[in-house]
Amino acid sequence: xxxxxxxxxxxxxxxxxxxxxxxxxxxxxxxxxxxxxxxxxxxxxxxxxxxxxxxxxxxxxxxxxxxxxxxxxxxxxxxxxxxxxxxxxxxxxxxxxxxxxxxxxxxxxxxxxxxxxxxxxxxxxxxxxxxxxxxxxxxxxxxxxxxxxxxxxxxxxxxxxxxxxxxx
Length: 168
What we know:
By secondary structure, this protein is mainly beta.
């Protein structure tokens, strides 16, 4: 008679025991499985310093010029930086005249992502075909005139600019 009672108590204890899968570890706490690394948080514009680099002088007859944009992680944590047409832009202006913008064509922004260590840099490039743009990925055929221009790069609220010249 005692054996069936012991078995019944054992079955009830097993049935009502807490399941570890019902209580995963809190976010940011290392898991018990070391093969599952923690994913970095997304970078944000408040913790990123942008820099844009290009040629000081560009020949008006050139086919294109390439700007290199770098994002430095100023936080003390690893973060994941994602580049896309929804959060990144490059605009070329001359005075208050907008000449070209990646907002005119999402295809002009290359989607790219990667982790950025604290103090580390993430770099990408953007090509400008040295023509005015308009919505719908359209480029004017007329060559731009020599003068001073400015490249303005933005990513998720962080921004930077660089002046350059188009010369004959």
